[in-house]
Write a structure and sequence with these properties.
2 domains; 7-stranded mixed beta sheet; 37% helix; 447 residues; 4-stranded mixed beta sheet; 16% strand; Aspartate Aminotransferase, domain 1; alpha/beta; Aspartate Aminotransferase, domain 2; binds pyridoxal-5'-phosphate; globular; 12 helices; single chain
Length: 447
């Protein structure tokens, strides 16, 4: 690689990375050495002043621009000078109540009751617990490839990579079933000829041979699988699935942590499939850059017994102030945001589909709104996943000023802030395409 490849490998970055390696527990660091320093709008800068176009939204957190808006930061600063933390689950305070009311105004009819926490995993922990309390049933169904968090309860639901679960099982109260990953159907079927064989499977096996449906509290699903590889189910999938769940009074939990909050152009990503869930969870973008998890239940489910769930920081006033400012912005501009996401999503998806046509290593291009991805393969015929080629594309794009994230076995996500102007979106896609083109040539030589 040329001079650009020095990004992250000279200046202050290597020293910080060495210190990090010495004191931090290993997590999930990317192959490139990005040491964050500052950013705004669609741009982010590393510690050595290198600028990148952000196609990651810092893991889907900055839906409305890197470091959020002036209004969000001002609201956080003002609230911080009054009172940051008010022990909201013990004492009362107005801002979290107002924020819950505002959130409810975006929800389907009949919603709801709100619980605040600090992350996606906690939002899902609460959803599992509430669903079991509401139904007085003990099992949860989740999907292979699904990602719901890394604390014990949500980890039981997560089946994205076995390393995440290692040494922590068994998880006896969760049943995993195949997700409609039609590009690589786990049941070797073809949609739509399959007639949703994966739903028949749920009825025929787990719900008849493994557990009585009357013991199942809920099924949890991401509307679009995120960490699992940006997998979009067929349009009618959730409608068909919901019929089965309703037959047995099994609740549907929609994990909107990554796909929700306007990412697909809709406030709730499940709305893309015309289905109303019973419980929704959110995090990531809802906090506008600060930690906030939300669990919202349908009012008809009632309430939980006092004392059965709470936390220390949920409803933190400084966090809520920023979240409220951001939600007020969404409220005022919802139609415009939806239209812009649809327009930009169309532009980007068309480019990705063209890349899929042109390059042997781009097996699939998919997504809704600005939750987009390409799946990298050795060749289109075998569809063999190619994580090594994906890494080369990520590294090359990084060297040329584009920050992205992988997902699944060999997928690259394209999730810029929803506010990205067309020219930066196009510039980022150009950088990505050049990296793909280069990797495609190298891969052809080896074929
Ligand atoms: C769909 C989904 N659910 C839950 C989580 C867990 O969120 P957190 O990392 O905030 O615990 C994530 C994180 O990536 C996610 O994508």
């Amino acid at each position: 690689m040329g001079k650009e490849s020095k990004k992250g490998n000279k200046g202050k970055a290597p020293g910080i990375i060495a210190r990090d390696n010495a004191v931090m527990i290993k997590t999930t660091r990317e192959p490139y050495n990005f040491v964050a320093d500052h950013g705004s709008e669609e741009f982010v800068y590393d510690i050595d002043g290198n600028m990148f176009i952000d196609f990651s939204s810092f893991i889907s957190v900055y839906n409305f621009g890197v470091n959020s808006s002036d209004a969000v930061r001002k609201a956080i600063a003002e609230q911080s000078s009054k009172l940051m933390h008010s022990a909201f689950t013990d004492y009362y305070a107005e801002p979290p109540v107002k924020f819950a009311e505002s959130l409810i105004s975006f929800m389907p009819k009949g919603f709801g009751r709100v619980f605040f926490s600090n992350s996606g995993t906690e939002a899902n922990e609460a959803a599992i617990k509430f669903s079991r309390i509401f139904t007085k049933r003990n099992y949860t169904i989740a999907f292979y490839g699904g990602f719901h968090g890394r604390t014990k309860g949500s980890l039981a639901l997560t089946a994205s990579k076995s390393v995440q679960r290692a040494y922590n099982g068994p998880f006896p109260d969760v049943i995993h079933v195949p997700f409609p990953y039609c590009y690589r159907c786990p049941l070797k079927q073809t949609y739509p000829d399959c007639g949703f064989a994966c739903i028949d499977y749920i009825k025929k096996y787990p719900l008849s041979k493994e557990v009585d449906p009357k013991e199942v509290a809920a099924l949890i699903s991401e509307p679009i699988q995120g960490e699992g590889g940006y997998i979009v189910p067929p349009k009618d999938y959730f409608k068909e699935l919901k019929k089965v769940l309703d037959e047995h009074d099994i609740l549907l939990i929609s994990d909107e942590v990554q796909a929700g909050y306007m990412r697909t152009g809709k406030f709730l990503a499940m709305d893309n499939f015309g289905v109303k869930a019973d419980i929704y969870t959110m995090a990531k973008s809802v906090g506008a850059g600060l930690p906030l998890g939300v669990t919202i239940t349908d009012k008809r489910l009632g309430n939980i017994p006092e004392g059965s769930h709470a936390n220390t920081f949920g409803g933190n006033l400084a966090v809520i102030a920023g979240a409220q400012a951001q939600l007020d912005h969404i409220s005022r501009n919802k139609k415009k945001i939806s239209e812009e996401v649809a327009k930009k999503g169309k532009l980007a998806k068309k480019r990705l589909e063209e890349m899929q046509e042109q390059y042997e290593i781009v097996g699939d291009a998919r997504g809704i709104g600005l939750m987009l991805a390409i799946e990298i393969v050795r060749d289109k015929g075998t569809k063999q996943p190619a994580p090594d080629i994906r890494e080369k594309i990520l590294m090359e794009s990084f060297a040329n000023g584009l920050l992205m994230l992988p997902a699944g076995e060999s997928t690259i996500r394209i999730i810029p802030p929803l506010t990205i102007p067309d020219h930066s979106l196009t510039k980022g896609l150009d950088i990505l395409e050049r990296a793909i083109s280069k990797a495609n040539v190298e891969s052809a030589k080896r074929r």
